[in-house]
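Per reviewer request, we include the raw input and output of the structure prediction for the construct analysed in the revised manuscript.
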Amino acid sequence: MAAAGAGYAQLLRTRHAARLLTGTLVGRLPTATANIAIVLFIRAEGGSYTLAGALAAVYGLATAAGQPLLGRAVDLYGQPRIQLPAALVSALAMCVLALSGTGSLVLSYAAAVVAGLFTPPLEGGLRALWPSVLGGRQEQVHAAYAMDAVAQEIMYTVGPLLVTVLVALWSPAAALMVINLLGVLGALAVVTSEPARRWRSEPREAHWLGALRSKGLLALLAAFFFVGSALGSISVAGVAYADDHGDQSVYGWLMAALGLGALIGGVFYGARQWAGTPERRLRALVALLALCYLPLLLTPGPVVMYALAALAGVFLAPCLACAFVVVDRHAPVGTVTEAFSWLVTFFGVGAAIGTAAAGPVVEQWGTAASFAVAAAGGALALAVLTGTQRVLEGAGRSVPVAGSSENDRNGDVEPGLRAGQKA
């Protein structure tokens, strides 16, 4: 872990790297905290779990729909022209939701749709920038993917706590607006940077399917739909668990524990050089992820539950870091931002479905049953990766990819995450 920390510190000393990573993380706070912020806001307004879950799901589905479209636009027109205007529209729409409350359901749903559709594809944009920022050095690019996954978990650890603090200091409505203002500032920091202003995508083959013409990428996306559903269901199940214990702060700590576990797992994963192909390793990681969701069904007291949540998060960041490399191996040339945005989309759609499903399950069968939705999502993700094994490993050796060497594509060199290795 010390080697990983040194490797990440070295990466962050690269010119523009710290600014881009920090700006992207801050810019993605609205998306990272949308589930908890919307659920807490709707509950404070007197809405039901079902309504809260439905609005969060609508936001998630709209985000999922907008990401690949905006990602393709970024590939075609560059980052500044797309990212900042989108962030502004999304933030304004979320402010409308915060100010209107549940007085008009039509307005509430419309605001959630607009906010989601215009969520800027900062996540895919950052991964598209890493090769130019790091001089195209593959080992450092893959290390940056690992650092990105670890940094996400810091965001998912701090984000829920930030929302609960803002709710305690002001109100759920104020929390929604402050988080989205921060998102605009983060996007502004990214698009005004030199790498974002200069970046242009590689020439792409004209094809209406874009990145989706890769069968290996489609297989990965299908699996991460179910990973997303598992994580999305926990956001509602966690609120129900906190309600059972009469303290909403329990939810913030539960989500923070989940993020902390993922942070620890991501740092450990990035500290090693792993043998074998990333596709095979991803199957093992998803299997462990699914297994660690099962103890949550026990719903013990808060202290033990925090420990179980941390355990459930341990394999999340490694799964994401490994998936980033798999995307890189399967994305057709010139579709890098779009390909990573599709990963966000499928993950987001899954999270939205998981969130929507967990609400009725809580009301019908109770809190423990809602955590079973997460376990089922992990199991289905593993089933998809197992069923598409030949497609993933076969296509990974032949499909041209953006930003990877010929040896990486042929499987001769392990494109693992060497977070601790110096350039």
